[in-house]
């Protein structure tokens, strides 16, 4: 069995999932076995009356057009997810980003362990979310990095191997950050507010925060019993996800069902986070999603999180509040909001629903969120 490493601030010693996978064990530890109702073998929506169900695909080749704004807004209202194609980020850069991070996770364990993280910041090489002792764990390792604002950059937290990892990750983050800014404008236009209104609520382009989390899901001997990442909605503003180009794994909740996403080559998967749900008074919805693992193949994805400035109170935009639709959420800064996630790990939509439940009008309407 894989050996646990020092806890570095975690409530118990940390076991690397990759080490468990490579140990050759035929079964997974009980800590990774999900309750039956949460297992990926539960019914997943695969086909509808008009063919395969999949999240919408949005063409961003004309990012400033009214048609693009309408398509983005419809996807954010109806699904909370879409695939972005013709997004302007070079496909060669996507391949390089995947390649360098596969290279990192294929390093010897003692090399990766130099970058072990702690729950104080989560920055670095990690294997768990949340600090509850004895909690159920997900079948995945990850690497988390702050990119912006500049004062949060920690050069010592960035891996030195492979040699081109830093340069590639910086270039990738810059390109995807630009995509986020274009998407924010389209989302705002689709809402009928000023093009720069959502960005302004995030603290402007210079105030917005950017983080990257690279997810590594090793092969699993019993994938039907566990998850790579538990069901959750993203706590931040918006997520731009580069998924594995070989192995499916992402599932998105659609009503009572789970839709397994079939990705378009070189597309990004974009999803609304809780902060945009709050700002838009639930016109745009963050949606639960989870990750399956695989017995035959490892899987890697790169998530870039685009977040509001962490100390700004986030509340529904006044333009989206009326007597017919009162504010659904109480103000809270992103710093305050993400403390819940750091303590508890991914737990569905419990945090954003808790904000709604603190308002009497919101409590009556929270089913819409």
Automatic annotation (TrEMBL):
Listed GO biological process terms: defense response; negative regulation of defense response to insect; regulation of defense response to fungus; regulation of jasmonic acid mediated signaling pathway
Record region (Disordered): 348-369
Known cofactor(s): Fe(2+); L-ascorbate
Catalytic activity: jasmonate + 2-oxoglutarate + O2 = (1R,2R)-12-hydroxyjasmonate + succinate + CO2
A Pfam family it matches: DIOX_N
UniProt keyword Metal-binding, yes or no: yes
Keywords attached to this entry: Iron, Jasmonic acid signaling pathway, Metal-binding, Oxidoreductase, Plant defense
Domain Fe2OG dioxygenase: 207-308
PROSITE patterns: FE2OG_OXY
InterPro entries: DIOX_N (IPR026992), IPNS-like_FE2OG_OXY (IPR044861), Oxoglu/Fe-dep_dioxygenase_dom (IPR005123), Plant_2OG-oxidoreductases (IPR050295)
Biased composition (Polar residues): 350-360
GO molecular function: jasmonic acid hydrolase; metal ion binding; oxidoreductase activity
Family the UniProt entry places it in: Belongs to the iron/ascorbate-dependent oxidoreductase family.
PANTHER family in UniProt: OXOGLUTARATE/IRON-DEPENDENT DIOXYGENASE
Protein name in UniProt: Fe2OG dioxygenase domain-containing protein
Organism per entry: Zizania palustris (Northern wild rice)
């Amino acid at each position: 069995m894989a050996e646990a490493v020092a806890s570095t601030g975690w409530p118990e010693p940390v076991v690397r999932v990759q080490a468990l996978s490579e140990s050759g064990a035929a079964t997974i530890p009980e800590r990774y076995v999900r309750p039956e109702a949460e297992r990926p073998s539960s019914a997943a929506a695969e086909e509808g009356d008009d063919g395969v169900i999949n999240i919408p695909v949005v063409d961003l080749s004309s990012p400033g057009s009214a048609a693009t704004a309408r398509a983005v807004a419809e996807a954010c209202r109806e699904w909370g997810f879409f695939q972005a194609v013709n997004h302007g980020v070079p496909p060669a850069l996507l391949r390089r980003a995947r390649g360098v991070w596969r290279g990192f996770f294929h390093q010897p364990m003692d090399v990766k362990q130099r970058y072990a993280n702690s729950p104080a910041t989560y920055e670095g090489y990690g294997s768990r979310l949340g600090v509850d002792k004895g909690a159920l764990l997900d079948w995945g390792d990850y690497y988390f990095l702050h990119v912006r604002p500049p004062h949060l950059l920690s050069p010592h937290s960035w891996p030195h191997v492979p040699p081109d990892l830093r340069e590639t990750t910086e270039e990738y983050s810059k390109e995807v950050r630009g995509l986020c800014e274009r998407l924010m404008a389209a989302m705002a236009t689709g809402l009928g507010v000023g093009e720069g209104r959502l960005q302004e609520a995030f603290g402007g382009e210079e105030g917005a925060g950017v983080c990257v989390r690279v997810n590594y899901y090793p092969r699993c001997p019993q994938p039907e019993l566990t998850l790579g990442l538990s069901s959750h909605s993203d706590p931040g503003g918006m997520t731009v996800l580069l998924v594995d180009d070989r192995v499916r794994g992402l599932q998105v909740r659609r009503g009572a069902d789970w839709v397994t996403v079939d990705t378009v080559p070189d597309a990004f998967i974009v999803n609304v986070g809780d902060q945009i749900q709050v700002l838009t008074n639930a016109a745009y919805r963050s949606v639960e999603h989870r990750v399956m693992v695989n017995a035959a193949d490892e899987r890697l994805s790169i998530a870039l999180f685009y977040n509001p400035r962490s100390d700004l109170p986030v509340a529904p935009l006044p333009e989206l509040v009326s007597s017919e639709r009162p504010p659904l959420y109480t103000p809270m800064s992103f710093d305050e909001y993400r403390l819940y996630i750091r303590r508890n790990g991914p737990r569905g939509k419990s945090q954003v629903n808790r904000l709604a439940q603190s308002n009497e009008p919101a409590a009556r309407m929270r089913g819409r969120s």
